[in-house]
């Protein structure tokens, strides 16, 4: 990791140039461009947030756990640059059959696991109940949580794979759990942990972003925060996807909504077990939005800024959601974009500190957002196992 102490955030104004900003901060224009992924000839968007190194002495930083999810087809350069900022990397994902047979990822993950270990970032096996279409299947969940023979078969196969490949933990990412399977799922998590602990493996579980125990909806009712917090070694609050592919334009992770989830979570789960979910992506919607027809395009955060620059769009910042957004027109079609920048990331990091959480988990690290990692390193000491 590069020395990133005492970073500042500057928001581009009308008439600014990178050279002028660099001179004002006594910084290198080339370094600012590199840190913020700006290509020559260094165009800027009004409203763009830049992370700038301001020097100074090292400061006392709180130690946090940082996890990132990655598919095995991640670009090698992105993986290599990101690994130093992670405690663990979660390999997405392994599946299973109703009989408990473990199904490996479609893309071979051995190279990713080897690369992670070479940089001192132990890999985690992610288990998901995907069907053949790649969708979450609650029938699979019901089968594996109630059929103890199949459950034991799955656990045995996971441990065998973990030993062979070098995984250090298991992340259970089960979604759309039926309400009647709520307790059985928590028991399953507890069973996995009970058998994993003697082998030195840890167990984490992903939680839908609930704000109360009574919250209705298939995404929430099968996830019992209190039971799962007790059953697992740690939990990830999936505090993103308010703005999502099929929904109306809005922030992916509005800080006011994220805060509501955290405030509820700490009443049910020990703070030292909680990781805050952080999105490393944004969405580009076409307008007008039509429910059931519109489909937003997922984009990277650095990519979002490039889109704004290419279309001469002014980036705004919503003071309630604490998230950046902008509008542009292309080929006669109106677009609305919401994404993350260093300002919105700083707000999320502040929640980790304010609520004394264990750390954070990124969904996902497939697209490089260099300024985020530099800000993270400037804010926290990243735990290494």
Features:
single chain, 385 residues, alpha/beta, eight-stranded parallel β-barrel, five-stranded antiparallel sheet, 13 helices, 17 strands, globular
Describe this structure in words.
There is one protein chain. This protein has 385 residues and is an alpha/beta fold. 34% of the residues lie in helices and 23% in strands. The chain has helices at 18-25, 29-35, 76-82, 110-118, 138-146, 148-165, 182-196, 218-221, 225-231, 255-268, 301-310, 342-354, 370-379, and strands spanning 7-11, 49-53, 62-70, 88-96, 102-103, 123-127, 169-172, 202-207, 234-237, 274-279, 282-287, 297-299, 316-318, 323-330, 333-338, 359-363, 380-382. The protein has an eight-stranded parallel beta barrel with strand order 3-4-6-7-8-9-10-16, surrounded by six helices. The chain has a five-stranded antiparallel β-sheet with strand order 12-11-15-14-13. A hairpin with a 5-residue loop joins strand 4 (88-96) and strand 5. Helix 10 (255-268) runs parallel beside helix 12. The chain is globular and about 70 Å long. It starts with 6 loop residues before the first strand and ends with a strand. 44% of the residues are buried.
